Predict the structure of Zinc-finger of transposase IS204/IS1001/IS1096/IS1165.
Amino acid sequence: MGIELDLELPDVEILSVSRDNNGDYVIELRSTKKSGVCRKCGKKIRHFRGYDQWIMIRHLPILGREVYLKIRPRRYQCLDCDNEPTTTERFPWRAPGKSYTKTYQDHVLQFLINSNIKDVCLKERLGEKHIESKKSWAVDDYKQLKGLLWAFRDSAVFNLPFIQYAIHKIWWSEF
């Protein structure tokens, strides 16, 4: 008997679901995209050039167990650029350059509201350095940050974890 999952991740399909030695879930995915964007010229490229290495990306827990997405990003080659460079597929649901999804990042940040880093580390089985890196985003637009702080200055919810969560939402343009 299987369980059907909707991970709400675009452009991927589930190949298999298994459990690792710790009892955590490993969901093997395959990209369904048929093109990429050249990292040099920005054009749409369709010339498939193989796969990159397998990557493991942490996602939201299921039934109290950690969940890891296992996927091999596709590589595409641009035939229009000099030296015909290859570009590795990027996933819009993955935090750029990180080993976790944006949804998991939000999940951890929400735990920080009215909590502390040590509690969140215990709940999510993370080291403190992971939490620190998740909450240390830079905001390029100083006016947005200043406006946000001004809006919350008289608020009863004026606390550092909430502001960090709000900064994250601005960073991802979801606020």
Remarks:
- The longest helix spans residues 160-171.
- Residues 95-175 form one domain.
